[in-house]
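Feature request, filed as a ticket because there's no other form

It would be nice if the structure record came with a short human-readable summary line next to the tokens. Right now we just get the raw output. Example of a typical job, pasted below so the devs can see what we mean:
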Amino acid sequence: MIMNKKKITPKTEKLEINNVDDSGLDKLYEKVKSVIEKNREKVFKTINFETVKGYWEIGKYIVEDEQHGEKRASKGDALIKKL
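Raw output as currently delivered:
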């Protein structure tokens, strides 16, 4: 059985650009801009925090590997140069 394929087009109303009321457009723009800026700031803070946390963990692993419970490592300078 072959079905006829009909092209369905949605009914839309054409907006006249000249007749659009943009009195609240500036306020909407500022609200949207504020949300974007606030969320970008949150993202940057999170990235910075996670970067510092990662560096701290790397330092911890190096200290644990080199010091083996001692107060100071004997070959730490050589390891840093190799890394």
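Something like this underneath would help us a lot:
The CA atoms of residues 43 and 49 lie 10 Å apart.
The helical segments are 25-67, 76-82.
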